Amino acid sequence: MSLFLEMKQLFAAMPPLLNIGYVLLIFSILLVVFILKKHQYSLRWVLPFKNKEKSITEDLLKQLYHVASSGRTTDFKMLSGALKISERKILKIVESMTQNGLIKISGSHVTLTETGKNYALSIIRIHRLWEKYLSEKTGFDKSLWHDLAETKEHQLSNEEVEQLYEELGRPRFDPHGDPIPTALGEMISETGTSIAEIPKDTIAKIIHIEDEPRSIYRQIIKEKLHIGAHVKILASENHHIIFESEGHSIQLSTVVASNIQVVLLKSREVYEEGKVRLSSLTEGEHATILGISTECRGANRRRLLDLGFIKGTLLTLEYMGPNQNPRAYRLRNTLIALRNDKADFILIEKTQYDRTGSL
Amino acid sequence: MKNKDTQDLLDLASELRWEVGENFHDTLVEGIYTDAAQIAQKTEIKIGEPNPYSFERKLDRVLTSKKYGFPIMILILSIILWLTIQGANYPSGLLASFFLEFLHPILKTGAFQLGLPWWLDGFLIDGVYLALGWVISVMLPPMAIFFPMFTLLEDFGYLPRVAFNLDSLFKKSGAHGKQALTMSMGWGCNAAGVVATRIIDSPRERLIAIITNNFSLCNGRWPTQILIATIFIGALVPDGFSSIVASIAVIGIALLGVGFTFLSSWILSKTLLKGEVSTFALELPPYRPPNLWTTLYTSLIDRTLIVLWRAMVFAGPAGAIIWLISNIYVSDLSLANITIDWIDDFGLFFGLNGVILLAYVVAIPANEIVIPTILMLTVARLNLMGAGDGVMFELESTTETATLLHAGGWTLLTGINLMFFSLLHNPCSTTIYTIYQETKSWKWTTFASIMPVILGFLVTFLVTQIWQLFH
Fold first, then answer.
1. What's the pTM value of the predicted model, to 2 decimals?
2. Can you tell me the ipTM of this complex?
């Protein structure tokens, strides 16, 4: 009762809207939201010290592994720059890592020991498995996978990882096309070449898209390029290259393009010249389905297959929704509505036959 | 020796898996699908090709066109709502006079003759029985009209086209296109709307649909909206226009609800339920004449009766509580009056009052009994002679109700805020229970129950502040 009386006085004391109290309250809420948003993925400073040390150690091991596998060497200064942690702190952690036999120091150079290498591989394994999990089982946008996995890799226990591995059907590659190390630490080395080094008129298949740095990765996925897509190089010059993929001509600067790894097509794979995306079909046009892009995964992919979006099926764009999206396609005598972003995943070849529902 | 062979084989398999790549499972599955399709193609005999200019295609072009798609949709919905509200009036009145005017006195007399103590008689007959009678007579007719009509449209094949039209809006708010269907189902009853979200296969988007279903103004709330709009907003204009203005106000509230559905879906999909929109693959079935009798039967049994039963289970105890708080006295004041005095200032701060807040607390089981409870509590508070303490009733005419409410200190602001609060408050206990049944999560059930109340207080607070700025 008395509490309520106080509240009553409080309410009575507040003039409407223009009270400085409200303004301050609203601004402080906005400020908190802004700060949280900015530090969404790097909440390390909130973690207790022990976990913090563990994740720095693991990040350091990963960094050393990547440096070693690309045949370079590194020192404290470079490590400090790459991980955005002060050199003093790095030194402290490196000291305890040396004591635990994870790394060797010769002069200012740091190299991994065998134990350290295995530890690094196990972290890479968790990271890539988690990205695989995010791509198959959740609806997170692919630009978020890396950051989410970056935190998760320090949290999963060995048992959890093995369980995850079984659940995902023992995958060997992550959604970026990187190999996932086995539990014993076996992994093939990456064999693709950068798309920027491929000569003109060559046909190749994308096998890997590097997800770091984030700004470049965002630029690549904005072009809807994905693993498994066939590309045909149209022009390759000093500063940029132009290539064709799924009916679209794409121009990328060499810096960006060097983050895309390709291999030449194997002899049994055919490059389909007229391959375009279903979203490019216009009203009344007919097409034959050539397949579903590998970018469409998990439940989404199975749903499309269940509906009959299978290689060889004929379809027609019957009509469009009020905003041109979604669009209704007729296949096998059924009308199916698809959103345009999903129609991007279905690859077709435009045909002339005025006959629907047959092969 | 044998073990060594097996090990070699396993090693070889493991090594080869690096070469087959990551999508060999998919390739295999697709191969099987393609083979199956080809076999079916060979053995299937087709008689006649579909006519490309059939009636069905023409109808589809009109119903989904940029120009007519949305107007037709709003028109059909208004007709259904109008038929429901108008058509339910008469049977509702009939049921009410049977339960409340005919059976109630008989029961009272019977109880008197049996010599039941006054408190048992009041508790059972004035409390539990009257609440049940109210809920049945106000809920049953509209649901028995709305659900069959809705099912007929679904059977005919129109509802998938509605989902198709509205999809781009839902896509923008990060929700599933089929939420259009569950949302309109919610206009009949939120509990039924929540059950209907089963058609959405992605768990994330289904949860969004469940949480936001409460923003669809349900059948139990339409009468409240219409009554309050007539009394407070209709009275602002000359008599001739009052019913039109009141209707526009009510439709405005319903559309505001749709707006809140989009807004909260968007906020949820950007924050708590982050994630990409899943595949929207909607089958648009061919139009066919609806099967009238089956439709009537299934919509009555599956939807109407189940929902009504749940509502009754919750309404009985509510009636008992309402009766108890009006009849238990602590130092000359009934519990109801003590509570109202206690929360009145809190209510006034949000432009409502203690009576409304208490009515919404005790009427959690069913929105239908909000107005009778408000009237009863107002009478008890003003110490007027009503039907007796803790007895729910409804006044014969709107004018009488208006007089009573004005006597209770209601202003235009109270009316407007009640309309907002009626749209934005916790779901009824039937819906809350259904949400738990569907999500099996206390966390989300609590969230879905509390979030609208907070929103309601926020909106009424803002309205009150703006109101005070001009007065």
1. 0.71
2. 0.72
